[in-house]
Fold each of these.
Amino acid sequence: MTRSTLRIGAGAGFSGDRIEPALDLIEHGDLDYLAFECLAERTIGLAQAARAADPQAGFDPLLETRMRRALPLAAPRGVRIVTNMGAANTLGAARKVTEIARELGLSGYRTAAVTGDDVLDLVLAGDYPLIDRPGTSRDLGDAIVSANAYLGAQGIVMALSQGADTVITGRVCDPALFLGPLAHELGWSFDDHAMMGQGTVIGHLLECAGQVCGGYFADPGVKDVPDLARLGFPYADVTRDGVAVLGKLAGSGGRIDAATVKEQLLYEILDPAAYLQADVSADFRHVRIEQTGPDRVRVSGGTGAPAPDKLKVSIAYHDGYVGEGQISYAGPGAAARGRLAIEIIRERLRIIGARVEELRCDLIGMDAVDRRGAGGDPAEVRVRIAGRASCVQAATAIGAEVEALYTNGPMGGGGVTRSVRQVLAVASTLIARELVAPRVHLEIA
Amino acid sequence: MAGILRDIAHVRTGDKGDISQIAVFALRDADYPRVLAAVTPDRVAAHFPGLRPRLIRRYELPALAAVNLVLEGALQGGVTRSLSLDAHGKTLGAQLLDLPLLPE
């Protein structure tokens, strides 16, 4: 029995997102579903590294915090949860949620883990051309930490069909967190490319949570957004024909109108005629966006074509170390003293023979993020030296040399900070979809 | 004065690997032709001498009064490798807002 309308909300747009807006939606939003999108491209590699150190780890570090607060509100209201917080340990995450449900006295609470995205063994056994740079997976050699295919929504639908109250995934296409519940509840077929396309539009609009409600939008005097400190998260009322009306809770901060929805529609889209997903090649060109009331926007017209034959795979690999040091200069001649500091550091790294493979020297306030060559002498500059090295000692030397500018460098340098981090980089390849199948594992509290 | 892009448009910036993506939207539908005239790949490339993308693609979306600019190879290897302070290139769209408009 499928229903005529589904209300689905967004509870997080990235792993560190605010939690209160999600809890408010569960409590006051009359939701059927809430989806938390928490898995950035390299997060799964970091999680895999965490799991290597501790077999119980490897899922989202905030999973426990989120679920301890969300479950007591969601379970009595029958709000089902879908999230990719499983990261590199989806089964472990499902067990953790089940443990929390037991502690909360939610006997019989069903948590499903959707696995199948981990294709590390396949990638290590084969040789796959990289799609975002020259070379193949074999060139990355021993540095490979993880390889995960972007699954579609079918595993989520399988889990919901088995009565899961919460569905935990690892790597899936972000919109699939929403497309899964929509397809399951509204009876959409995966062969219906138009509905898969429109469902992808809806998922894409919701997946960054606050960003469709005026987050990442405010430009004072031009595009004002009320009360960003209390930014509301969005929900969509979706009917069987795929038409969605976006909204947020009355009294929450932010705004939803044609402008915020248009910006989110094209966010991180390359070719709007072919947004490639595991379930569909979605076409955003004919999407209609109409404001129907205060903070209410109707979205229709998304469509699609059959999905590509292959699935995208993200490969995380160790890529050496980045060392960084910063120091500030102010007053007349600040920029010239900053430039002198940079010259000194370049020379020092040569003198001490630090094997730095790539060095970037910025004057923050002048050219660190500006790519226009805007120029002009500011009241203060902050020198930033960042370099890549294969060994931690060379990376560490960068910050040490910046710190030594205090007593050996130009006049009036202050506020040194320094850091070294291990780099986990990501490369992408493609894999035949027949080699990848989602599997569902159910845990019952 | 013909003004700058900020007078007639708003922008949203995203990234995908080593690709920066800047969507430009006319504030009023009537200004869409002026937006199209302003944000040609050549003019965008000239506005960002420090960026040096390999290629700029432009997708027109008349139903949304929008243009999607896709700047390939613009992010020094992308967020996981770049040494840039803004590895995502999130500030780039805002920097496009002072692009001069063409006289009407």
Note: Chain B has one domain: 5-96.
Amino acid sequence: MQPARAADTSPLFQAINVSKSFGAFKALSNVSLHVNDGEFISIVGPNGAGKTTLVNVATGLLRPTAGEVRFMGRDIAGVGPVELARRGMSRAFQLVNIFPALTVRETLAVAVASRLCRVGNPFRSLRRDDVLQADAERIAEVLGLRARLETIASTLSQGEKKLLDIASAFALKPSVILLDEPTSGVSTGDKHSIMEVLVSAAKAAGVRGIVQVEHDMDLVERYSHRIVALQEGRVLADMPPKEFFADPTMLAAVVGTRPQTLRKAH
Amino acid sequence: MSNQSIDIGSETVVRRTVLRPNGLRVLLGLTVIMALLPFIASPYVLLLMLPFIGYSIALLGFNLLFGNTGLLSFGHALFLGVGAYTAAALTSKFGVLSFELLLLVATLMSALVSLVVGALCVRYTRIFFGMLTLAFGMLFHSFLFKFYYITGGDQGMRVLRPLLLGMEWRGGKTAFLTGPFYYYALLLFALLGLVMWRITQSPFGLHLRAIRENAGKAAYVGVQIFRMRLAAFVISAVYGGIGGTILAVTTGLADPELAYWTHSGNLVFMAVLGGSGTFAGPAIGALVFVVLQDFVMSITQYWRFVMGAVLVLLVVFMPQGLSGTVEALVNRRQGGR
């Protein structure tokens, strides 16, 4: 993925002065964030900084208390997941989120079927739908799950389950994909391979922007074009990784005083 | 990153899902055996097979909701009642005797009722869905019970012998039921079984299973949860209505007991007995239930006690039901899967 091109004018995704309160607790205050065409953005911050709330607001799951959320120039505040998927934004979750009893092929077919609008007729054959099946197979191929097509999702390894979750988000052929800690709960060795697969898959699938929440600073440094640091619901920094990691106060604020311990915790 | 994207769909399909159409085979095998049954079995056995056919059809629908979508209805007898009372009202009050017309109106009525009931119920899941469906079932039962002048109250309503394909049968009642009606109902069972098989093998069926597995995630991959659940509810209700029509013609009576909650419980029992995880399981469950109930009733008046004990043993030792257990045994013998 190359950084944003100057030719592209309006951002793909924009959160403008977003605030979100849960009762008296202010999870987000005046947060602004934008994603340009071709960008890979990492949202970082300590626990409770509002990262997941931001993703939830951004994916239309939560309606912001104040502010605007726009995707491809249209307001998406609170539109709900189905409509969001239709408009071209998809999401993978922090915790492994799969359909346990479905095979990899079926899992991907669920997303492909909704994208190709195949569910209106309950008598249409799933098995003989060559376009749909080929599509699901291509996604599996891209995410390195081809050999696992007929495997029941619950029997996959932890890393494969993560990939499957991400693959089903890709199967919607989204313009923007939001990943909430795509590598959490995965061994350090697998983290890099998952990220490599993810980035190349994004390229192959025509994903135009990635937003991820990530704790692992190695991954953040290596893959992102821009880092948005949150602290207590506010944007602390929005800068390229080079500048971000050059500033020791940033790192301390985001990962706490003992970055090594935190890294190990994940 | 540019706007290039992989050209999905241009490549021809390489490998297809290996689906073992076991469920359909079992169902069709069952149909063939049933079709041969009149040549060897007594009219008593054949009369016992009619409720089995009625229940099987209802359970094919019930399991779309329970086994596929993960919604356990405790009020499904409501739709058996709708089917039965539609048949009763049409034959004895409006003089409509065409069985095809009975089926058509029963289909429409159960679809209509389920659309309203379902729109309220499918917003909830698990125990809340179960309780709501139970409540609607009870509501309908009290309507049947209390509105004597419309429904005949506890007396029920007579269901006159219908015309099959416009033809009148001049013979006796038993000969009608074990002859033309038996084959008509069996054909209907096979046909509706095929249709249900298509439904479960469609992208629509896949979306239902996705909802059962993980509704939260399903929404994020574009599954329209409410609409899909409602569609499954309506389809299952239509199957219930058709099953109820067959039951009512068999007994010649639409009885409020048909819509009573214990009857809904029986449907759940049959589904669990046969195994809701497989396509033909619930039909097998209906068969075993009907035969077992008849057998136990013939030897003891404490048949409910025996049936209860069977249910307990079943849940403890065979949580997958009969078909699930058989499938597991076969798989183990074949080296496991």
Note: The mean pLDDT of chain A is 81.
